[in-house]
Amino acid sequence: MSERGAGEGSVDSERGADERPVDAERGAGERRVDAERGADERSVDAERGADERPENAERGADERRVDPERGAGERSPNTQLGSDEPMRRNGRDGQGGVAPSLGLVVGGSLTKGLEVRLDAGQAAQLGQYAMAPLVDSASLLGMVTDVVLKSVDAGTTAWPPAESTGRLLREVLQDTGVYTAVSVDPYLELEDAGGEPTRARRLPRHFAPVLPADQATLDRAFSTEGRAAIPLGSPLGMGELEVGVDFERLFERSAGVFGKSGTGKSVLVLQLLDAMLTRSSAAATNSDRTVALVFDMHNDYGWSMKFQGPGARELRSLKQRHQADLELYTLEAGVARSDGQVLIGTRDITPDDLEVLRETMQLTEHAIEAARDCRQRFGPGWFDELLADDPSPAIVAKLWGAEVPEEDVSWPRVGARIGYPGSLENLRRGLRRLARKEFVREGEAQFSDVMEHIVRGLQGGKSVVVQFGRYGTDLTSYMLVANMLSRRIWERYRDRTERAQERDAPPNRLVIVIEEAHKFVERSLASQSIFGQIARELRKYNVTLLVIDQRPSQIDPEVLSQIGTKFCLQLDSDRDVEALVGGVSGRGGLKQVIAALESKRQALVFGHALPMPVVVHTPEATNDGSNRGSLRRRLGLPAKEEGESLLGLYGARRSEPPSTVEAPASVDLGT
Ligand SMILES: Nc1ncnc2c1ncn2[C@@H]1O[C@H](COP(=O)(O)OP(=O)(O)OP(=O)(O)O)[C@@H](O)[C@H]1O
Ligand SMILES: [Mg+2]
């Protein structure tokens, strides 16, 4: 690194600042000449001996120290951002010494981003936040979306000084002849005087200093105006800072957590749900509570979650953290701590429920049509009728009426009679497979009992986790139960919302959490799946989705576009990345940012609930302390601020337990 280069850099920038108005007037042609002259001067400088450097270095450092003062003076005195104050607070030496500005603005555009020349010795990461002063007492906040190595003239890189003989020259050229530049995508403008951040519409001037964003700036940019915020972790490269996402806005539309296996999706969702339940338990009435209905495929959100952490093999999960506010249902019988078993009678299953299982159960389209036909002809007992080895006399009578056939009627003959010769066998095979599952009961209708309990729990302010146990690896079971429950619960919410428009209060908000979402809402299925419908209806009925998926590119694009806030962890393929950010206008930089995410706990979060994208290192998941305590600790909140900060974090503080909450309904639906 050349210290002298740095010194000159600040000289340049000072001069630049003085001359700025003139520079701006002058044409691009002249600037190019300037640049060339600059390069010449620098290379002449480079020829000059190393002896001169120490003195120059001194000078450079002094000037740097002066620079921020002057910069602040030039801006409005009450300036908060970009003044020397935050710079000093950011100072890495902690002594209020040299401000660690990242670099200087040297070019760029609103659409393609700012070009920032890094100061000597500075480095920047993709996804990091940077800010720069605008004219008129405002600052621009943006995100680093590219890092480029540049050279002043081609000669330097065409004939780089040899390693053995040109060591000195190399050193001299660093940050003079060659340097590092970063692209910063502009996102928000923040007025120094306060007020809401607005979309970036202006750019800083040439040579404006670019600084890493500080906590005060992030607090303003991500302000929730007193509403609850869920901590998201620290922005990349800024371990000591924190950002949060507006709780209300996050769940008022559907959200998605995407990433390949092992990136931390489940832990992140647990953290979001933990915050949801913590906040809900503090809400004054049930209708203020946001509740979750979680279809827990991998047994993550019940009592404990498998976890590979230092010292802990399990993470305390929702039931352990929020006993009174969570009901746990299981598909298997006799599971410890279960509040009830989900049972489905064969009479509960309709042809519509089979439709979404077409692919996983390898049912043909005709088989589904045959099911509809049978339902119509044979009534609610159609499923059980089809399970029998031979068609029952009742069926034969129904199909043949008076002209009863002489020999015994077989299923293939029934198939031929109703117009589905091959498909009926296909359908019967599928039904037999369903009936063999432990939670499916032949000849019964069970579902409405379970449903009733679950709906009562949800509308009473309690979240519900449906744990699949060993059925988690069986996609058919997962999709059957998730679809059946969601469809019926959604209908209940819809009816209640529609009724509410006339008299009673609308139901509390429900967030349905599904994994492997693409299986439900892939292109061919999205129109039939209840989840496609929920995503499209938006928040009309107070029901939204939280989808967890490894392959966003396989989700129906229309459904994907309805997902308001996206948490994007490392992804496998460009197609998945494209599917997620493809629609985000003019933000090609985000793709680079996603491509650079590490394999665990790094997420790009963007969309409806956030004013601008943020790359975060997600909060450390730990077992210690109470839920609220650990959440608070993760935020590093000092004890004395507790009350006030909690208000900001979780909304209303709990003064006394809400009187409207029912006691946990302990239901054993197993017989
Ligand atoms: N916030 C966190 N704090 C500490 N460790 C974490 C955190 N997030 C993830 N990990 C580590 O990463 C591992 C995998 O995380 P997780 O189970 O959430 O991945 P996943 O994306 O859900 O994977 P899969 O798609 O296979 O379900 C955890 O067991 C844990 O060791
Ligand atoms: Mg997982």
Structure report:
The chain is α/β, with parallel strands linked by helices. Helices cover 39% and strands 20% of the residues. It folds into three domains: 219 residues, no CATH class; 305 residues, P-loop containing nucleotide triphosphate hydrolases (Rossmann fold, 3-Layer(aba) Sandwich), CATH 3.40.50; 77 residues, no CATH class. It contains 25 helices and 23 strands. A twelve-stranded mixed sheet has the order 9-8-23-22-21-10-20-19-11-18-14-15. A six-stranded antiparallel β-barrel has the order 1-2-5-4-3-7. Strand 22 and strand 23 form a beta hairpin. The relative contact order is 0.12. The N terminus and C terminus are likely disordered. Adenosine-5'-triphosphate (ATP) binds next to helix 9 and strand 12. Magnesium ion binds next to helix 9.
Which key phrases capture this entry?
671 residues; alpha/beta; Rossmann fold; 3 domains; 6-stranded antiparallel β-barrel; 23 strands; 20% strand; disordered C terminus; binds adenosine-5'-triphosphate; binds magnesium ion
**CATH fold title of the largest domain:** Rossmann fold
How many angstroms does the end-to-end distance come to? Answer: 76 Å
Domain unit count: 3
CATH architecture label of the largest domain:
3-Layer(aba) Sandwich
Strands across the major sheet, in which order? 9-8-23-22-21-10-20-19-11-18-14-15
How many H/I helical runs? 25
Bound molecules: adenosine-5'-triphosphate, magnesium ion
CATH level 1 name of the largest domain: Alpha Beta
Q: Tell me the name of the CATH homologous superfamily of the largest domain.
A: P-loop containing nucleotide triphosphate hydrolases
Mean model confidence by pLDDT: 76
